[in-house]
Task: structure prediction
Amino acid sequence: MHDVDALNALFGDAISVSEAGVTVSNATVLAGDAMDALVRAAVFGDGVAKEYARWLIWELGQAVGVRASSIHDLYMARGRHEVHGFTVPAINVRGASYDTARAIFRTAIAMKAGAFILEIARSEIAYTDQRPAEYVAVMIAAALREGFRGPLFIQGDHFQVNHKKYATNPGPEVDAVKALVREAVGAGFFNIDIDTSTLVDLSKSSLAEQQRLNYEVGIDILGEVRRAEPKGITISVGGEIGEVGTENSTVAELRAYMDGFAAALPAGMVGLSKISVQSGTSHGGTVLADGSIAEVQLDLDTLETLGKVARDDYGLAGAVQHGASTLPDSAFDNFPARETAEIHLATNFQNMLFDHLPEDFRKEIYSWLSENAKDERKPTDSDEQFFYKTRKKALGPFKRRLWDLPVDVKAALAATYDGKFHFLFEQLAIGNTAGIVEQYVKPVAHHRPMPADATPTHEAAPDDADLSD
Result:
């Protein structure tokens, strides 16, 4: 248990670990270099040390009030028109995740923001090599490192059913999503976006039939979410009526989906808190031959109308906008003005990361992509298009290198992130929402048993203890 003792020794006498739990006598030590070492062990450590580091981070969060929580009650309040005027950013943290999340929490503290979500999609979990337990540990550690206090809304984004796999063998594909639900909820994802919009069948003659598989399979997966949710927590669950990048959604489609959903929902089961729609965007934007992003034809009227119907007629928080991070800066203040409930932001932060990489490192990544992602290259792709579309696939294989960027590179990236997050939080009007969150969201304590074989011996760690591997 030497590694476990070394992890405990990181904080000296400020924390104590016993069979009764974790006690923090001096929380200031959590916002120091010791947390950097602990989270590194949670990501790159081996065996028991890794599991213990993740457990300790979770319990430290429980002790000082940084707890994974559901945004459901806040969203239901919005559906009742009790809160309004802001748009919740759901931020996909993909690469250099600890440093990225730290910038988010620095901004939240400075602006007294509480209404924001940290998320990762089913596809991102795979290509960034961040399973749910790791992701939760990193997000909590980043919050502790910056001194943030309050509920953390960690979300499973696009827990999506693959339509091709479903068409050939539906059972195993749905089961795979359910298995991910169980894993994610067990790790602390108390917000889940179910995406069965891939199953909308436009060949059917009526809107109700077009949406039938979407809501029926969605409810099947929703049942798994409700069975998995911890005592005292109602997980916030979103549905989706239009696959991002396709034709814009309509009010008639929303009604067909929601009416069918309501009719098929088992008695007593809590339903949705929000609905994702399509209003002109695409994930990552449309890449032109020179690597620039085509102008987005965002239909704000559609977004506003769908959100109003979702609130007024179905009691949801409103509409959710995906694929928003590559929009021009001038677009973002439209979302709270149009009462958009939530927007999803991902690619632009990834772009910032790659823009700050040392040139030789970026070339190394692109060389790797040329070999390992060559099957994804279309004959018409320019180099700029190919690398822009595929470079996210390098985030997992180069994860450790991205954590270990030079100090000056990290500092420059942090400053850029700080500026961008401040701008977005301001434009989306989530400054001073910590009080609103506190009013409606009551974080529930969920303690976890210490990992087996991890009982510390309380021996002091040697000065040169290596906790990274």
